[in-house]
């Protein structure tokens, strides 16, 4: 497969600054990072391809050679994607781009990003919760019984049998990392990687815990209280830090991601923070005017005035009676929007029919062209 232009790989122009190249590389590297795409060979190749492009373009001398000769530069350009470099090579060489040793804490790998011994991070959990419109209006605290990895009670998370000790790793001599020297087209190059024997911890457990087999975590259950803020909407995700799976060897707990599902409401239709209420008004009240009661999301009733001669399609806006904005995304509350329709009975008594027939002959009940146009415009605007 033909190599792609390095600038094309990173999505930058040939005049891009070093900071722009670094930012572009980091964005691509995060997207195709192996911790985020476990087992995905295509993502791994894209990750290596981006690393190869960055390795050349962030070095002024190599970039100058590439700009002048392309891939035909004297000696050529090796390549991570050609298999000459491992993932640990990339992480150690470009640690400044990833932070620390380049491993992400959020995907079950090492946490932190600081130099020194790794701190394992537990995996995240995902939950789904269905909420009523009333619960969304006020916010709610839900309790879940969650099955997850918990700290081993027998060894208190150390992974070693109580009373036993750990010994220094014979491979890395306690540093947690090994250094490899290899010959490349640019000369001898040293790369630092996580020690394969102790996985970066610097020590080895002599007598592993019989309950957790040295992992420091076991399967267990925990009742978790999760506070859902007011104003959330269907499809939103509420992140609860530190309530996910426990990390190995007293590492960092993962998070719980709570996916919101919103139940349908029989009274209101939600439109972002506004609530739409369809009021079916009787003809006498529409013609004569009066007072009607409108429900609210809190379960109370709110009186509103109906002006004489109210037409179908009329709307009323009750300010601040809708749903609150989610905290951190603004402030205030939406409105209740009342859409008024006029109820026409399907059957009439003899007296009712007689009275309406008399009204029909009255000039006041005959609609003129102006009135018809006004009603047409209201409905046209309502459905547009």
Task: Characterise this structure.
- This protein has 384 residues and is of the alpha+beta class.
- 26% of the residues lie in helices and 27% in strands.
- The chain is built from eleven helices and 17 strands.
- The chain has helices spanning 6-10, 18-31, 41-57, 60-69, 80-84, 87-93, 95-98, 133-138, 283-288, 350-360, 369-383, and strands at residues 110-111, 119-120, 125-131, 140-151, 166-168, 177-184, 187-194, 203-205, 217-228, 237-240, 256-262, 269-271, 274-282, 290-295, 301-306, 315-318, 336-343.
- A four-stranded mixed β-sheet has the order 12-13-17-16.
- A hairpin with a 5-residue loop joins strand 14 and strand 15.
- Helix 2 (18-31) runs antiparallel to helix 3.
- The longest helix has 17 residues, at 41-57.
- Residues 80-116 have low confidence and may be disordered.
In short:
It contains eleven helices and 17 strands.
Nearest-angstrom radius of gyration? 34 Å
Helix content: 25-40%
Describe the strand arrangement of the main beta sheet, using strand numbers: 12-13-17-16
Low-confidence stretches: 80-116
Q: Tell me, briefly, the overall form.
A: elongated
- Amino-to-carboxy terminus distance: 53 Å
Order of helices and strands: HHHHHHHEEEHEEEEEEEEEEHEEEEHH
Q: Figure out the total of helices.
A: 11
Largest sheet data:
4 strands, mixed
Instruction: Report the portion of residues in β strands.
Output: 25-35%
Structural class: alpha+beta
The number of E-state strands comes to: 17
Mean pLDDT: 79
Which key phrases capture this entry?
single chain, 384 residues, alpha+beta, three-stranded mixed sheet, 27% strand
